[in-house]
Amino acid sequence: MRRILRSFFCFALVLASSSCTKENSTTESEIRVELTSVGGSRARITVASMNRKAYYSYVQLSTQEEAYAAPASVAVAHAIAFMESSYQYYEKGSFTDVFCYQGSRQFTISSILPDSDYRFIVFQMHPKKHTLIGEPIEITYHTKPVTLRELSFDVQVDGEKIGIAPSDPRLTYIWDYEESGIIEDKYFFPQSYLYNLVGMYDEYGFLDTELSRGLEYWYFADDKKLEAEEEFTLVIAGCEDAEFTTSPMQMRFVWHGPGNVEVTEALTECSIF
Fold first, then answer.
1. Burial per residue of 206-241, b for 16 or more beta-carbon CB atoms within 10 angstroms, e otherwise
2. Which of 70, 112, 269, 272 has CA atoms 20 to 30 A from the CA of 135?
C-alpha cells in the first residue's frame, strides 16, 4: 500500500495398557466451522480444529460451479486432485505448507458476488496420502445485495500529483496505487489488491478515514518510497459500507522522476471483477 505504510491436546487414557496415546496428524479431529460475518463481496469464516496437529483444508463453491450440487465428499475429491496437479508449480514448501492449515484460523473470502449462494467445505486430510479423514464439515451462506452507483472518475496524472474527480461529489470512493509487479506477484489482479486493502481497513476500524469524496489530489512528494522508473498501477472504485459500488478501474503509469510521469495505460475497467 502506498498512501499508508500498512486448544488443546486431547489425551485418551488406555487403562488396560496403562499408557497415554497422544493425538497425531492422522487422528480424526473434531472441526468447528462458524460464519463470523458476511457482506456483499466478502465473508469471514472461523475454523477450529480440536486436534492441533491435524491438517485440514477447504473448498468454496458457487452456484455457477458444477460441483456445487455434488456431495461434499465428491467436491473434496475434486479439490484434492486440483491441489495435487497444481503443487508442481510451487517452488517452495511441502504439500501441507502450501494447501493445509492447523489449529484455529479465520478466513476472509473476498471477490465473491453479491446476493449469491455459496458452500464452504472444510475437510481433514492425511498429510502423506492426501486422503480424506473423517467427514467434511460444511456451511452455506448467502451474500448481501450491494447497491451499485452511477459513478465515474476523471483521473489526471502529471509530474507532481494525481488528481481524481468523481462524477458525483456526494458519493464515497476508495483508491490507491502500488508497484505493478507487487500487485501481480501478491494479488494477481488490481481489483484483488483493492479488495484486500478495503478488507484490512474495515477489519481494523479505520476504513471511513480512508474513503474519499469529491475532488482529491495526491502529491508524489508525499510518497517517501517512490522510486524512479518503476511502473505503478492505480486502482479506484466506488465504496460504501466496505463494499464496492462500482466496477474497479485501473490506470498504469511510470514515474521517471519529479515532473516526469508517463501514463502507460489509460483509466479502464478492470478485466475481472
1. ebeebbbeeeeebebeeeeebeeeeebbbbbbbbee
2. 112
